[in-house]
Structure formats: C-alpha cells, structure tokens
Amino acid sequence: MQSESQPDSGQGSRHHDDVDKTLVTALRRRAMDYLARREHSRLELELKLNKAFPGTSVELRSSVLDQLELDNLLSDTRFCEAFLNSRVERGYGPRMIRFELNQRGVREQVVEEVFVGADIDWRDVIFRLASRRGLDLVGDNKSALSIRDWQRHQRYFMSRGFSPEIINCVRELLDIHR
Description:
The protein is mostly helical. It has 3 domains: 14-70, Arc Repressor Mutant, subunit A (Orthogonal Bundle), CATH 1.10.10; 76-118, Arc Repressor Mutant, subunit A (Orthogonal Bundle); 122-177, no CATH class. The protein contains 9 helices and 2 strands. The longest helix has 27 residues, at 11-37. The chain starts with 10 loop residues before the first helix and ends with a strand. 20% of the residues are buried. The model is unreliable at 1-7 (pLDDT under 50).
C-alpha cells in the first residue's frame, strides 16, 4: 500500500507557475487597457485591478504595477501633470487640485514638483473662470455687483479651490456696491 503523501513529481508546482503567469499576463493586459484610455495614478490602477480581479493577492498586483513603472507605462508624475492640466482647463484652483491628487494617492513631493514645474498663473485661471460666469473684469463695462451677489461668486470660487488672496484679485476688478 502506498502512502498518501507521495513525493510531488513537479506537475503541481508547474501548474501553479502556469496559472501565475496567465494571471500576471491578464493583470498586465487589463492595466495597459486602462492606461491606453488615460493616465492613472498607481493607486487608481491598483483599485481598478483589485475590482477586476478580486481574488488576486496584493503582492501579485504590486509586482505587475512595479513592472509597469519600470517599463515607464505607469507614472504618478505623468498622471499628476495630465490631471493638473485637465483641472486647470476646467477652472479648478490649486487647493482643490492638490486635494484630488492626494485622494488619488499621489505623493505630496510629486505634486509639489509638478506644480512648481507647471508655473501656472492662478490669477489667469480665476479670471477665465470669472469671465465664464459672466463677470466682466476689464474696460468700461466692469460688472457691478451687490455684496450679496459677490458673496455668491466668492463662495463658488472657494468651492473650486481658490485661496482668498486669489479671489481678492477678482474682487479688486469689480464694482461692488451695497
């Protein structure tokens, strides 16, 4: 009678390696599909892969993400640059953009480097936003607002992530009356 613990002939571990390679390939392919659509932060991509492949280990997903970073297909810096440009075009201020980047797992050091490198004039950004909101800031037709109307605009600018100092640049160009 043979014992139940027979030596492994290598078939079990070879099968396990094949399954891991197939899973790694599937994870990498899915990650590259996401990256082909737009830049992602490492955290965003990890969360999407976890959702798409819920049974995979953190180590396996991390190794796939590490390799994507080594291959320069995944970059938090590139994501941060694209995200910053997108948000600036949509009229968001630095506070909101920093908050959103933090929520997406981008390190503060990376955010700071990208912000410094971008050299954005936040006054121009808020002036364009004010113009889109119907405020005329130049010429003889400066918008005249009641204090109440100005406070409404001010709250809006704050909710978009602009500092009080930048918001006051807009206020100085308006005719605000009681």
